[in-house]
Amino acid sequence: METLWFSIVAFMIAAYVVLDGFDLGAGVIYLTAARTPAERQMIIRAIGPVWDGNEVWLLAAGGTLYFAFPLLYASSFSGFYLPLMMVLWLLMLRGIGIELRAHMDNPVWRGFFDFVFCGSSALLTIFLGAALGNVVRGVPLGPDQYFFEPLWTDFRVGVDNGILDWYTVLTGIIALVTLTVHGSLYIAAKTEGDLNRRARDLAKRIWPLQLILTVAGLIASVSIRPAVLDNYKHNVVGFLIPVIVFVSLAAMMHAILKSADWTAFLASSLYIVGMLVGAAFALYPVVLPASTDPARNLTIYNASAGHHGLSVGLIWWTLGMILALGYFFFVYRMFRGKVRLEGEGY
Amino acid sequence: MGLAPLIVVLKTLALRRNDETYHQAARFWARIFGINFVLGVVTGIPMEFQFGTNWSHFSRFAGGVIGQTLAMEGVFAFFLESAFLGLFLYGEKRLGPRGHWWSAVAVFLGSWLSGFFIIVTDAWMQNPVGYSRAADGSAQLSSFWSLILNPWAWWQYAHNMSGAVITGAFVMGSVGAFYLLWGKFEDFGRIFVRVGVVAALIASTLQVFPTGDGQGRMVALHQPVTLAAMEALFESQPGAPIVLVGQPNIDEHKIDNPIEVPNALSFLTYRRWKAEVTGLDAFPQDQWPTNIELLYFSYHIMVGLGTLFIAIAAVAVLLLWRHKLFVSRWMLWILLLSLPFPYIANTAGWMTAELGRQPWLVYSLMRTADGYSKTVSAGNGIFTLLGFMGMYTVLGILFLFLVRREIERGPLAQAEAAH
């Protein structure tokens, strides 16, 4: 039962990163790829009807995490207090950036919200990557299974970590680069003309960096926490995951060169899922490792809610997911195809 | 939440009468709804995070129960609402008139479902049911249906939602009255006033009876000390009076300058004029609500304004029925100026509920002082609180600026993004 809920939460987080990832990435390239007001409008139109629904995966994943693993939620959210507050600010700024810019047709007003949207998107990707880095690296859990991390200490990976050290900065940058490529490919797939070409070029130029960072990330993770390899050693099938990661990276470049934008976007999605599943596989059954003493690790067993609650949840979660997937299918179908400036929309 | 069903009403009238004016009226309120929604979403996200960031000991204790409803809100309500809002705001042509009506219904259902799960969560904190205590002391769900069918939740939900409709209805009526007094967009002004005052009368009547009455009896049954503090009833007595006006004097255990209706509290609570109502003296002082004065005034402001809403709406509907409303400028002025009061009444109502629960975070199970995040220092708490106050002030100003602008441009203006 706990394993099932671990997989469910992992699935929801992966869905969040793949879906909201592309509109975050679109925000990162927003000021570089789009050179004219019309092109900016196209990017906003490409993500406008879906970004809020995508972001709901974060809230739904958070709610499900709270439901299935209350102790993990309580401990990590209070321990990551400061960075989460920044994430909240960024989510707020980004939401009003996208939505309020349309309310006034004034270049100063739009320029301001364009900047807010782009800046908050870029910072959010870095924070999300750093958050994942913190979970893989471990946090200084005390005997009561709570902790509090300052923003930074000495940037070294050790017992008294800050939120930011060289490892989590690295994972933050990996997330920024990955989602920038992901967003560029989505925008390429949704647009035509100069914007389409420029977005694809951006992805092509960043790709080598993504490859280097992927290798660096794997090496760094193994070196700071050798225990991440334990599950792989016990179950060699796991080594398929990094294979998938690299194959999808290669497939992505292949598709970019052939200007097959949707294929490239799907390859990028597979890459993201592969990276996240790889991390989840390495952690399982631990959900928050303690850098202080492995005995204090939060695992799916000591952090989960009661059995009755978890079984009831399975029923409504399945029902709710069927409905949610139905809505998503419908909405994406309604807004399918390349975006145009004529007609109604953002 | 209050505006959503009214937009559905406007959309339905537009379809039934095949009248473009109603379509335009619905589009106008959809634009205002859109601004509300964006600011509601961005200011609502911190609430879900706060359970963990600021109230982690509470979350560890109660997550096994209220995690259910909070997760269900995400899975059932947020997805529905967010998926259809984009279609509702920007997909009218794509969907066609009927499809667009359905998208309005979906947004309405999503927002009301979201309200339901939040109220069930709050109701569990007010009147915990359907749980058992695990070995580590935490509360764990033992009966899903007891949690969902908590009687407190249903009364509170009904009371809260009719409160939301009152706000939506008075806002609509107020904007309509503004157009009529201004002499611009008068066709729309008449629609807004008509729909607004009728909805306001229905909702404000429901607000008192049965929902307010039911909610009050829930408090009397499950939190008698809260009821005593709300009414500032210091001594238990048969035939307890209700205080209409007066200031509680906690040190001397009396009401200053009271104007009272004898026996009324006994009757309202127990349906008998001479019934014994328990006063604060029956409870140890460490179980009294922490801030009785504020609780007392929140409650009295809520009740006072609620009564006023019925009076305003009743007179307005009477004038509407006699075909005099649109020329009764004095009444239009009253409708225009009533705009802020439903907001105040709703806020006062929530303050009554939450101050009334004190000193408990989960009634009789966990004190508020035990529920906060102990690892987060006061310095970090103040730092982020100030930040949020600043951010919310800016958002509030933006909200007023944009809504004022929409109202001034009027229902005939095209959405600017549709260029």
Give the strand content of chain A: under 5%
Shape of chain B: globular
Q: Please state the oligomeric state of the protein chains shown.
A: heterodimer
User: What is the H-and-E element order of chain B?
Assistant: HHHHEEHHHHEEEHEHHHEEH
- The SS-based structural class of chain A is mainly alpha
How many strand elements of chain A?
2
Q: Which spans of chain B have pLDDT < 50 for at least 5 consecutive residues?
A: none
The average pLDDT score of chain B comes to: 92
Distance between the termini of chain B: 29 Å
What is the helix content of chain A? Answer: over 70%
Number of strands of chain B: 8
Distance between the termini of chain A: 43 Å
Radius of gyration of chain A, in angstroms, nearest whole number:
20 Å
How big a fraction of the residues of chain B is strand?
5-15%
Chains forming the largest contact: A-B, 67 and 71 residues
Give structural notes.
The complex is a heterodimer of chains A (346) and B (419). Chain A has 346 residues and is mostly helical. Chain A has one domain. Helices cover 73% and strands 1% of the residues of chain A. Chain A contains 13 helices and 2 strands. Chain A has helices at 2-28, 30-33, 37-47, 51-68, 70-79, 81-100, 107-137, 166-190, 193-224, 230-234, 240-257, 261-283, 307-334; strands at 286-288, 298-299. In chain A, strands 1-2 form a two-stranded antiparallel ribbon. In chain A, helix 6 runs antiparallel to helix 7. Chain A is globular, with a radius of gyration of 20 Å. Chain B has 419 residues and is mainly alpha-helical. Chain B contains 13 helices and 8 strands. The mean pLDDT of chain B is 92. Chain B has helices at residues 3-17, 20-53, 56-90, 92-126, 144-148, 151-182, 186-222, 224-230, 264-270, 292-321, 329-337, 340-357, 378-409; strands spanning 131-133, 139-141, 237-238, 242-249, 254-261, 276-277, 360-362, 366-367. Chain B has 2 domains: 1-146, no CATH class; 150-376, no CATH class. The radius of gyration of chain B is 23 Å and the shape is globular. Helix content of chain B is 71%, strand content 7%. Chain B has a two-stranded antiparallel ribbon. In chain B, strand 4 and strand 5 (254-261) form a beta hairpin.
